[in-house]
Amino acid sequence: RMSPPAPQPRSAMCNFSSAHGGVAAAACDEKPAQPDDLAHEEDLTRDVPSLLDEMNRAAEDVNRFERKVHEAELRYKQRLQHWSELYSDLRRRYGSDFDRA
Hints:
Elements: E1 10-20, E2 23-32, H1 35-94, H2 96-100
């Protein structure tokens, strides 16, 4: 006796509508997936782990650079405060002579 044919992978095309009292209804037309579609899906699926690793590395890089920016901003504010205090002190000591120098 012959065995039944193997089931074909299917891809669904669905249309959604909310015609009856705001309740969404879906009508799906299924068609067999094409070999090219399956190969493309396999290619995409195969790449997912490496893409996730790349995204994680990129997120780590972003976090590291944001920390560096924050540290640089703190140093800038500290130095600006220091130089502002120094300038004010020199202006108090030497007045307009400091401006001419």
